DNA sequence: CATGCCATGTAAGGCGTTACATGATTTC
DNA sequence: GAAATCATGTAACGCCTTACATGGCATG
């Protein structure tokens, strides 16, 4: 399960509780599990029983008791092994909007335009939210050069994803205005 | 459920059987259900009981009996209503490769490069497959100008998705070569 | 004679989400 | 006094996939 490796990755940086992991995943741009503790707590149990993690109970006063999870040497080895030996998968996407577009032949030009504009708006919102997440996340100050580069590349990937989708909406809008000018000018 | 509207859309062009729908969805670039008859047959039953479709049993000699589904006026109205009144959603993506990348700080430059090259290769394969699908699908010869335009835009969307991902891999590879030159030249 | 296509359907199970339960502490 | 945060966990459900069951016809 991929989420197990995502957790191992996070714990390879520093020990954390399940709750911490949940928050980080909620804020993450590419860990796409939308802050879902159910899966996290189950995964943690499994990883512990596989000896990839150890858990330590931390009593705190003025706050609930928590379990601190640490990655083991076996865990680090498993993560490394996974990274180098897993064949990279092509990305998946779900674009419900394309299904809407596919139905748009029935509509008037102005209606299609309106739809695309709404989509554009939604994309802009999303893009701003992602940038905001990225901004909030930057607390780790002194990463190694390599780590920094990788972080940047990951952000760039997500950023250009939305950018190119936005560019596509521009192309569509222009196409509508050029091809269906007669109608939309009336 | 979105798949219901995808089915309505397909049946709005011409009557079909569940099996036909399954095949089309398998070949579709943006209907992302990977040819899954389970959902299709269930959806068809539901759509029938909602009077959005009618089904007609067709006996064929030399082939199994099939059920031909036709969209009703109510079905067309529901589809149109859905298209114009559903707020467009931002696309979702899952890129397991980014999780792999996030772990790559541990690796040597050459290993990262290898990983990215493999990803690039996988993307190229995928892109070719999608183009092949698109080529095979083009049997509908004389679409209206508007329909043609929409079809083209949808294909363009998917095409540029892979293209921009490929461009990203180029950027990453260059970055590795520039930033970690010392190591990778050894 | 095995494989594959046409055609309909069912079963099992994994992945993922929302929501709930509990309970203490802090903040408005 | 209400709401948010910290913290762990469970329950219920929906979506989606793979695989299976059936059976006739065609193709190699």
Oligomer classification: homodimer
Helix count of chain A equals 8
Work out the strand percent of chain A: 5-15%
Arithmetic mean pLDDT of chain A: 91
Most extensive chain interface and residues per partner: A-B, 66 and 66 residues
In one word, what is the shape of chain A?
elongated
Count of domains of chain A: 2
What characterizes the major β-sheet of chain A? 2 strands, antiparallel
Q: Radius of gyration of chain A over alpha carbons?
A: 22 Å
Alpha-beta content class of chain A: mainly alpha
The H-and-E topology of chain A, N to C, reads as HHHEEHEHHHH
Number of strands of chain A: 3
Unreliably modeled segments of chain A = none
| End-to-end CA span of chain A | 56 Å
**Which sequence of strands runs across the widest sheet of chain A?**
1-2
Helical content of chain A (DSSP H or I, runs of 4+): 55-70%
Question: What does this entry look like structurally?
Answer:
Two copies of one chain form a homodimer. With 186 residues, the first copy, chain A, is mainly alpha-helical. The first copy, chain A, has two domains: 2-85, Winged helix-like DNA-binding domain superfamily/Winged helix DNA-binding domain (Arc Repressor Mutant, subunit A); 96-185. Chain A is 67% helix and 8% strand. Chain A is built from eight helices and three strands; from the N terminus they run H-H-H-E-E-H-E-H-H-H-H. Chain A has helices at residues 2-13, 18-27, 37-49, 73-85, 96-102, 109-137, 145-179, 181-185; strands at residues 53-58, 66-71, 92-94. In chain A, strands 1-2 form a two-stranded antiparallel sheet. Chain A is elongated, with a radius of gyration of 22 Å. The mean pLDDT of chain A is 91. At the A-B interface, helix 1, helix 4, strand 3, helix 5 and helix 6 of A face helix 1, helix 4, strand 3, helix 5 and helix 6 of B. The structure holds a DNA duplex (28 and 28 nucleotides).
């Amino acid at each position: 399960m991929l989420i197990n490796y995502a957790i191992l990755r996070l714990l390879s940086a520093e020990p954390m509780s399940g709750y911490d992991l949940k928050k980080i995943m909620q804020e993450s741009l590419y860990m796409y599990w939308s802050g879902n503790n159910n899966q996290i707590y189950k995964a943690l149990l499994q990883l512990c029983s596989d000896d990839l993690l150890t858990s330590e109970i931390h009593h705190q006063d003025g706050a609930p008791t928590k379990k601190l999870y640490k990655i083991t040497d076996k865990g680090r080895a498993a993560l490394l092994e996974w990274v180098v030996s897993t064949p990279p998968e092509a990305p998946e996407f779900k674009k419900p909007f394309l299904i809407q577009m596919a139905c748009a032949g029935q509509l008037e030009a102005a209606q299609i335009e309106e739809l695309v504009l709404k989509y554009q708006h939604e994309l802009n919102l999303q893009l701003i939210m992602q940038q905001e997440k990225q901004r909030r996340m930057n607390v780790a100050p002194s990463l190694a050069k390599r780590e920094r580069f990788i972080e940047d590349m990951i952000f760039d990937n997500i950023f250009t994803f939305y950018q190119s989708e936005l560019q596509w909406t521009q192309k569509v809008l222009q196409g509508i205005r050029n091809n269906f000018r007669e109608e939309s000018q009336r």
